[in-house]
Amino acid sequence: MILGSIFLIILYLVFRYIISWIIYVNNLDPRLGDSTWRFTYDYPVAGERDISDLEDKDFVRLRRKKNKFILFMYSIVLVMFISSMSLLSKFFLFFFS
Q1: I want to staple 53 with a disulfide (CB 3.0 to 4.6 A). Which of 19, 45, 60, 66 is the partner?
Q2: Looking at beta carbons, which pairs linking 76-80 to residues 24 or more positions away fall under 8 Å?
Q3: How far apart are CA 93 and CA 95, in angstroms?
Q4: How far apart are CA 97 and CA 93, in angstroms?
Q5: What pLDDT tens digit does each residue of the chain (97 aa) get?
């Protein structure tokens, strides 16, 4: 149980670090939006939708970087959920057996 708790604390710190990177990237370009939970292609972009980086390289590469951070954040959330369910089951087994 102690190792599971330490693992969850470490994952939470990594999660907060990823969130701070997403907020930092959001502040670099106002077209990215303010949300930390949505991928950037969900937002309407002024002008044509830029699929490749031929027209606006900096924005497209920044958007792809933000999407990678968000994907990593969701991966951490999934691992945290599974670990917390494991820790909760160990907790119940310890106290109710």
Answers
A1: 60
A2: 76/11, 76/14, 76/15, 76/18, 77/15, 79/11, 80/8, 80/11, 80/12, 80/15
A3: 6
A4: 6
A5: 899 999 999 999 999 999 999 999 999 988 887 888 887 765 555 555 556 666 677 888 888 889 899 999 999 999 999 999 999 999 999 999 8
pLDDT at 16: 97
The H or E element containing residue 86 is helix 57-96
Provide the b/e sequence for 59-78 (b: ≥16 CB within 10 Å): bbebbebbeebbeebeebee
Dihedral (CA of 49, 53, 55, 57) sign: positive
The 10 Å Cβ neighbour count of residue 18 is 19
What is the rounded distance in angstroms from the CA atom of residue 11 to the CA atom of residue 73?
10
pLDDT at 49: 58
